[in-house]
Amino acid sequence: MSARSGDGIDPIARIEGGVGAFFVRHPETLGKGLLVAYSGGVDSTTLLAALAALKPCAIRAVHVSHGLRPAEELRAERAFVEKTCLSLGVALTVATIRPGAVERLAKEREIGVEAAARELRYHILRRTAARFGLGTLCTAHNADDQLETLLARFIASSSADGLAGIRGLRRLRGGLFLARPLLFAPREDIERYAEAKGLGHSADSTNAADRYARNKIRHKLIPLLDGGFPGWRSGVLGSAEKLRRDRHALRQLLRRALADCGFEKGLRSASFSLDGFLAQPEVLKVRILALGVAATGAAGRLSYRALRSAARSLDRGAGAADLPGARLLVRGEKAEILPILDFRGEDKYFFQIPSEGLYRCGPISLELRWESRGGRDAPSPLQGLPEPKAFLLEGAFSFPLLVRSRKPGDAILCAGTTRRLDDILSSWRLEPSDRDAVPIVEDRDGIVAVLASAIERPLAGARRDKFRDYGGDASGRRLYIGIKGV
Fold first, then answer.
1. Could you give the domains of the chain?
2. Considering Cα of 12, then 18, then 23, then 24, what sign does the dihedral take?
3. Nearest to 389 by CA among 456, 476, 438, 305
4. What is the pTM of this model?
């Protein structure tokens, strides 16, 4: 049994009117065009058809194949997707995830297969939007999805943020809008629309398997609630609406707490006043720490229990605490949140560089100095380090910089192509033990350079550097970089 409208409105008018009303409320989403996540199921087929009928702006569909189902089923689904887009006059991009990639990510991140598939899918969707210059990503989440999500989050002990439900519109990293224009519609209305328009759809065989938590909720829990608690749907949605209002008030309190703490984001780091932090209630402390972890770029799910444990450690006077994917350190009157990469115990290093100068971390010394094309502007303060050979062109980067060891997933844009750093270092024939020594230089726009020649000690294998694409003026100063002790 699906959520019901019960108003007798023509299904085509209801769906297309509701989708059109969404964009009337949010005209800012139309400026650069829409990218529609198109699985081929009835929900996304309905959304794509409604948008094709309304034509609010330029539209492109993207179909992501996760490689988790039989090859014959995937081929049939792709054929259907291509045929539907052709009939609707909508441009299509098809992306295929390599077999086994979802399972590997799930194992590496210690997350479920569903979560890993979602992470890879959204990565592809964001890159496709950027490739075509589209400003809004549309997904076909509906009112039934909202109910299933709320139940799943309640069972998993979610916070008020999670129990507020799926948001109709939000911004992703990089400024891309994520829109859910069908969130108002129960699945029954969507199916009626597809029938009235003569739309087919593909069937995902994994939707019938109860090994996924969402399918268990859909197939077992919801029918049980429908049979015994007739008003549960409106009750759950009503609670979510109240929590959304509570969340708004909580966010206002959080903004004040951040100001009281002097919370500051750096490049892949965050810091705040310890006294200001300790004066806050625990519910705000946890959120302050979550924002700090997010500033480091740490991947994976944030554990409320781990955040709360770290907050209580600070209450007890601890000088350091573990966070999900990051480390919390107390330094005098300040607390800092830094990536795990910062710590020598893991044979890694991490420097935040606001300007030229000499920097030290344990046994490692790092020098950065400007030189004009005609020669050195200032003497080297780093005694015992041979003259640095590695340099960056002025204009090819911006301060602050990170100089660090590599980490999983690193990639650099070279000659118009994004290349994995692991592939680059392998091609240089470096010993595996030397690859973590090679400095990775990063600014706010990503990795600037891979500088093997910046290392003071000789490395086995080829000794090369790799730089991010730069088409600007090369006649200015050079920032020379040398590192000793890695």
1. 11-230 (3.40.50.620), 264-341 (3.30.465.60), 345-484 (no CATH)
2. positive
3. 456
4. 0.65
